[in-house]
Amino acid sequence: MTDIIHLLPDHVANQIAAGEVVQRPASVVKELLENAIDAKASSIKLLIKDSGKTLIQVIDNGIGMSQTDARMSFERHATSKIKSAFDIYALHTKGFRGEALASIAAIAQVELKTKQENQDLGSIIKIEGSTISLQEMINTPKGTSIAVKNLFFNIPARRNFLKSNAVETRHIINEFQRIALAHADISFSLYHNDNEVYHLKSENFRQRITAIFGDRINDKLVPINETTDLVKIYGFITSPKFAKKKRGEQFFFANNRFIKSNYLNHAVTKAYDGLLSSGYFPSYFLFLEVDAKTIDINIHPTKTEVKFENESDIYAIIRATVKHSLGQYNIAPLLDFNRDTSMDIPYKFKDSIKKTPSITVDTNFNPFKNEVNSQRKEKSNWESLYTDTTIESQEFTKFDTNNSDLQMELFNDTKDTHQIKSLQIQRKYIISSLKNSLIVIKQNLASQRIIYEDLLTKITVEEAVSQQLLIPIEIEFTKQDVAVLFETKEELENIGFQFKEFRSDCIIIDGIPTTIPQDKLVTTLEEIIDSIRLETAQENFGLLDTIIKSMAKSLAIKTGKILNLKEQEEIINKLFSCKEPNYSPYGKTIHTNLHFNELEQKFN
Prior knowledge:
Elements: H1 10-21, H2 25-38, E1 43-49, E2 55-60, H3 67-72, H4 100-106, E3 109-115, E4 122-128, E5 131-138, E6 143-149, H5 156-160, H6 165-182, E7 187-192, E8 195-200, H7 205-213, E9 221-227, E10 232-238, E11 250-254, E12 257-259, H8 262-271, E13 284-289, E14 295-296, E15 307-308, H9 311-328, H10 371-380, H11 390-397, H12 404-411, E16 422-425, E17 429-433, E18 437-442, H13 443-461, E19 466-476, H14 479-487, H15 489-495, E20 498-502, E21 506-513, H16 521-533, H17 543-555, H18 565-575, E22 591-595, H19 596-601
Parallel strand pairs: 1-7, 11-13
Antiparallel strand pairs: 1-2, 2-6, 3-4, 3-6, 4-5, 7-8, 9-10, 10-13, 11-12, 14-15, 16-17, 17-18, 18-22, 19-21, 20-21
């Protein structure tokens, strides 16, 4: 039998490795920006075309590379960051594994220009699909310029899996924002199709936040600063009154590296207990500085998921620090917030001399003087105590607990039009009876399905109706959120929105769909933005369907709402008039049945 195990060729191994490193254009952006930071650049420019599918170019003024290093940088696992396995546990740089450039070069056309400060000439290298097509000396400025063209040109299947330009651009901007926030001392600029998106100068962290998310966020920021033996925490949180229905602006940085941690996010959220309405989330921009030996950043290829040695202790410190800042800056409510100010001493009497009140006694007072007269009146009117009792006694007999006819009326099927047909429990479920079973309906999911199909009908069959606003509404959003709404402007107008103006950090609306109450306008738009950002649209459905689903989710009756009998019956009737009453717009089961035979078996 012949041997079947063999070594993969380098170009195939690089393409496989690229599957972990390069998932989309934003992955390339992250790797190249981090390389520029590691090169000690003070100014970094990012150029993208066609959402990174045609071109991703990063230009920096860092230390550059020698001709040999430029060639070696494209070899697999070639790195200047570590020399032994122990170095992995004391890292102070962004990249360290040495697979990024090799993986990128395996699936794109790459051109590198670089020069060190003490060199007269720099180097240019061109690589296509891991094959070097050009390497020579060139006159180029100090630093490095690396251009990645036609991503996935040799893997068409991978290229076809990329999302729309709008979606891929948002991912690139997300990566750019994370890195720019982590390094406020470096100036960054971003150009998309030759249009300037960001131009960030070197500044402090607060200025960097406002430069990215708009000047209006400045007044919402509450500073955080705490140093302990385990961790140093600094940055900003936002006041509870500015909380949002989405989790967009939540950033954790560990040793200047953006990280994702649901556990630490929970620590921040718990600090806001009692200060936020249900379903609202605070924004935060927090830096954690820990000993490099107590954090493992090598547990995931993207290096955004990390493991702390003292995670539970850091959780407690974050929670206490955030809670302390909320109290220190008078964000948390005071204990006497319900004090009645009408009980305060008036200012004009505050310093006046108080006199002891005098007490006088009426020596002629006789408490028994009128007792005889009152007794006589009571005796003369005693019969009135027992008049008009006929009706009351008759009404009382109706509720005799021993009345068997009454029990039959309450618990058996009758033709009484006032019979209870449904029951709400835990402010979450509606229970009703069918011919042979009980049906349990989740009210929130049922409401989503009803609203979803109603919106679909109004948009696809009927003409969407818009409600004109007497006074246009100005709503504040981040620059990125405004871009999302602008990209979906046509779909939103088909639903009934009317936009007066789009600005860099807000939108002005002068018409809304009749299906949206004005007090739910902001949360509905936030839900739409979140759904688009999270790419909830399926291949078989368009952007409009994603928007309608998010609107249905936002407008649906929430868990916890008390429903009267009429509202319960309305949900039941409307649900089973839907074309698909079994599943919510997001595919969740809406109701379940308990057959009476199954119920009877429980008592055997």
